[in-house]
Amino acid sequence: MLVEGDGVFDLERASDGRLGAGARAALAGHAVLHEVAAGLVGQQPDRTLADVTLGPPQPDPWQVFAIGLNYRGHAAETGKALPEAPLVFTKFPGCLTGPVASVEMASDTTDYEAELVVVIGDTVRNVSAADAWNVVAGLMIGQDLSDRELQNAGERPQFSLAKSHDGYGPTGPLIVSPDLLDDPDALEVRCFVNGEQRQADTTHNLIFSVPVLVEYLSRMMTLHAGDLIFTGTPEGVGLATGNYLRSGDVVRTTITGLGELTTTLR
Question: CA distances (Å), 50 to each of 3, 5, 194, 254, in order?
């Protein structure tokens, strides 16, 4: 679907069949998406946002990358040195869920991590930082929920498993094209637990910016349309204080121009 204001348009119909219903195919045609959106002025939407239940905007990425210690404050609160290169792990795609989610906690050390998520729009390799925004189809909000007990169990960390329990990847509410934002390199990221602000920073303070991350990852492997990059979380996580989530807690995550996620833990 394509959203303009409060209107929801069937993408296959609105594009006269040029774009299919699948998210991955639509993202691969992100240049066409702009043309289609421009032609919606005055058209009657198929539905309104109030009529639909939103799931994860991109439910089937080939690859989901995540970046650790990408804000100075977060590195400091964990007692870690600043990384010299991006610290990359993965969240398995099966953990993805939508912007209004009820998530079952896998342990009593479930933590919140508010993040900007990048959605790739082209199949590319060796993209320069200068060209990186051209291959980004959009941005959305993410929560990198983390099972800290599993993550730190044993002598070797288990980042990918600890962050990939069912529902541990809330995303959404929509994928927003970067050109709709005043400055996609400087977005306010905030996280609230039961109304109390726990995290606040701006993506201007990322150690490795969105263009740098796209360049780095595309040097290592092919990036595919629909791939996701969780770009890292600001300071204020429960790991630093022992203030983990509890059943019934409501986590609200906001990013400038991208809306909000609301996740209820149980």
Answer: 12, 12, 24, 20
